[in-house]
Specification:
2 domains; seven-stranded mixed β-sheet; six-stranded mixed β-sheet; 8 helices; 43% helix; elongated
Length: 431
């Protein structure tokens, strides 16, 4: 559309109506274009912020590896996690003359009852903590040398010899406790088999130190009863207990079963027996909880940017792209603050401090950008709700997916209807 017209005399004159129409059309298109361009910028910026967020994830993995290495050093001095088996060690001989050979056959008892009482404490080296324990273990049971299972009969081999060619020395048999993860016998006691019927009843009590977990690998007819003073036990090291109770002063758990006894190979690391036991370390470490929190980072970033955009439309005030970048970096910094603080205090306090610092910085910056305390208060309320919501998700591992999905649906619905009202309110009226 031109803004000039020719008169009958041939002279050009300025067309006021045409100029005004074109100017108004430009004004009507400009806000929509600005919204589209700003939305595109926010989308690109959000994707670019995935780079520092990935760096945060790498930092979490690195710190977790350093923590794991420190825990290994502590456990080497005190005692590592224990996975124990009760066995009968039966010396044997094979062959004759120069080809005669000796060895030890390890067989699980036919009946075994185990009781363990754990007292735990926390060892500190620098900023790293390791839960350790001292346990009193009591054993009782029965071994019948006349009862042959499938594992110790026939043409099976053990230690390079056929079992049916072995000459067992039951008189020298011992009750032993084996650390299965390390393939070592950690306790011995003479068994004293009665020759007349080949049945031995055994009983023993001993103390053991360890860290993180204590479990038993059992066969035959067995019962395992464990008690401890840790209020946060984890029973996922093997079979879940048949009965358990957990309170502020500790826990009680019991297992029972009946499996065919078998040979025990000290070098075997695959366990075909039942595993029963408990971990005294918390099921969720601060690094895992921090990593869970990072997974929701884009939710906070995108919603904060959308809030800024809606305020721009509502207040009819443009926000510089640099200000979006700065607020985005402030939100990413929350996760490094959380990681840093969580290494010196509990995750709960670390999360609270990091959230307060980030919310305060973002609120103050928003107030300076828009020169409006009301807008800053809106952003502060949104961040408080989001950080509270994400904290709850980190605490309810079993229902985090369900709660997260429902929460995201509600948040999306609120944003959709709020944006519709703000955009309509920010558009000029047509008459």
């Amino acid at each position: 559309m031109t803004t000039k017209t020719e008169t009958p005399t041939g002279k050009e004159t300025f067309d006021t109506y045409a100029y005004a129409s074109r100017h108004m059309a430009h004004k009507h298109e400009s806000p929509a274009k600005k919204i589209v361009l700003k939305t595109l910028f926010i989308a690109i910026l959000s994707l670019l912020l995935l780079i520092p967020l990935q760096m945060v994830k790498d930092l979490i993995h690195e710190r977790e590896e350093i923590s794991t290495q420190a825990r290994r050093e502590i456990s080497t001095e005190w005692g590592k996690s224990r996975r124990l088996s009760v066995a009968i060690a039966i010396p044997y001989a094979t062959g004759s003359g120069k080809s005669r050979d000796n060895g030890v056959l390890y067989v699980s008892p036919h009946e075994c009852d185990i009781e363990a009482d754990l007292n735990h404490k926390i060892l500190n080296i620098g900023r790293y903590d390791l839960p350790v324990y001292e346990a009193t273990v009591s054993l009782s049971g029965r071994f019948d040398s006349g009862r042959k299972s499938d594992d110790i009969s026939g043409d099976r081999y053990y230690g390079g010899h056929r079992i049916k060619d072995m000459e067992p020395e039951y008189a020298n048999a011992e009750l032993v406790v084996i650390d299965r993860d390390r393939g070592k016998v950690i306790r011995r006691k003479p068994l004293g088999i009665e020759k007349k019927d080949g049945i031995a009843l055994f009983r023993d009590t001993f103390s053991i130190k360890g860290s993180e977990s204590l479990s038993f690998i059992t066969t035959g007819e067995y019962t395992v009863a464990m008690t401890g003073d840790t209020p946060d036990p984890n029973f996922r090291v093997g079979r879940l207990p048949d009965n358990r109770s957990v309170g502020d002063k500790g826990f009680e758990a019991s297992w029972s079963g009946n499996r065919e006894g078998n040979l025990i190979d000290l070098n075997e690391r695959q366990y075909y027996e039942d595993i029963t036991g408990v971990e005294i370390v918390s099921a969720v470490s601060q690094y895992r909880m921090t990593m869970r929190t990072v997974k929701y980072a884009m939710l906070i970033v995108v919603l904060t940017f959308v809030t800024f955009l809606l305020v721009e439309i509502w207040r009819k005030k443009s926000v510089n792209p640099l200000q979006y970048i700065l607020i985005g970096l402030a939100l990413v910094l929350f996760y490094t603050l959380l990681l840093s603080f969580s290494e010196y205090m509990s995750f709960h306090y670390a999360y609270l401090i990091a959230a307060i610092m980030t919310t305060a910085l973002s609120t103050a910056y928003t107030a300076s950008v828009f020169s409006d305390r009301r807008t800053a208060a809106i952003l502060m309320a949104m961040l408080v709700l989001l950080y509270t919501y994400i904290y709850v998700l980190t605490q309810i591992e079993s229902y985090s997916l369900l709660a997260g999905s429902i929460g995201l649906f509600i948040i999306l619905a609120v944003v959709m209807f709020s944006s519709q009202k703000v955009i309509k309110g920010g558009q000029p009226s047509h008459r």
